Amino acid sequence: MGPLPQDGPWLDDAAGRLIRPYTVSDGRTRPTTDLDLLSMVRVTGVEPLMHIGPEHAQALGLCAHPTSVAEIAAYLRLPVVVTKVLLSDLVDCGALTTHAPRFDDQPNDLTLLEAVLDGLRRRL
Asked: Could you tell me the superkingdom of the organism this chain comes from (predicted)?
């Protein structure tokens, strides 16, 4: 695995993440909203009234279209539990909405599985 690209003040090419993930969530490990890896989140258009950190802002930017919790965690390079706490904050303030993924009639749709595998391969 090569060096991480520079993604703002919290990442360094050589050192990686400069702050511990638990500081991003203020040490919280339990989201207030029930989310799983496949939960889909999307912006509502409501501006958060609370002060949001850079990770919250990045998460909002990733949710212009329905996006899974797993995808957001990968893009933010954060543990899933930290990502769930951040997304939960945004749901609580009305900036995000969440819904269960749609599987239509086939929960093991080969097309979906191939798309996930393709996405994983592109990230490596």
From this structure: Bacteria
